[in-house]
From TrEMBL:
SUPFAM superfamilies: FAD/NAD(P)-binding domain. This is Uncharacterized protein. InterPro entries: Bdr (IPR023856), FAD/NAD-bd_sf (IPR036188), Ferredoxin-NADP_redctase_2 (IPR050097). One of its GO terms (molecular function) is oxidoreductase activity. It comes from Pontibacter korlensis. Keywords: Flavoprotein, Oxidoreductase. PANTHER family: THIOREDOXIN REDUCTASE 1-RELATED-RELATED. The keyword Oxidoreductase applies.
Amino acid sequence: MLDILIIGAGPIGLAAGLEAQREGLSYLIVERGCLVNSIYNYPLNMTFFSTSERLEIGGIPFTSLNAKPTRAEALEYYRRVADSADLNINLFEEVQHLQPEDDVYRIFTSKGEYPARNVVVALGFYGIPNLLNVPGEGLPKVRHYYFDPHYYFRQKVVVVGANNSAADAALETWRKGADVTMVVRQPELGSIKYWTKPDLENRIKAGEIKAYFNSSITDIREREIDIQTPEGRLTLENDFVLAMTGYQPNFSFLEKIGVKLSNDEKRYPQYDSETMETNLPRVYLAGVVCGGMDTHVWFIENSREHAVKIIKHIKEEQQAEKV
């Protein structure tokens, strides 16, 4: 019997494990992919907007070569956290369902089942992309994840999006020899790192990266795409589409286990902001999943305190039961 089963081995799931360990609670972290799977899937050359100390968990220092760490440095840090604390983690094991049984939960995974008194859902949002919902989106040339720019050398690449992911993909692939076109729904570029935005704006101004604003892709075919622009429809030759349109939490999993979601497009999950407990007794949310479709609200630096709140509440509940 576990005191806590933690779903997700991202930074906030690890933070919850560290807090549980410090409070002497039995716990298990279960992750469907690799350790900090979302960070692993970030672009190869990605640099965080946050400084290293704001990515720290459990009070364990994170030092990096520069003020803003890279993806590789973050992976190294979280591996060292997991090893130095000897965290109890099962990787490549997916949680499929929770079943309440009296005052405990039975958690069924792809590899077994576990009884636990409390469950912490620390799912990220990087696993389910927001789709374009246009014909041809299922073609192999359409990518919702961008990793390494070398792959696109001498290719005609369309990047969809206006924010950081789109900016990084456009600039990096262009610098590695791609013919890059951006398609942006908005009238201008969005929220982009301050050291990246002027670079992209200058490339667009110089005509080195083409950009269509107030525009959207309407059809994707093997060798070309259609774009609806303010001036009318445009057909371009195309080898790859990088749809950097954002991601969303696994709402179907939350609904499946019984967590209530708002009925509007934001799909906010129901939870107590003081304890992080959901409408399900002893089932807690932590991290970016708390924001519903507003995935920009919660980051590592402002959601790592969720772990502290949760473990504090669980300890208080345990002590109350003993009285």
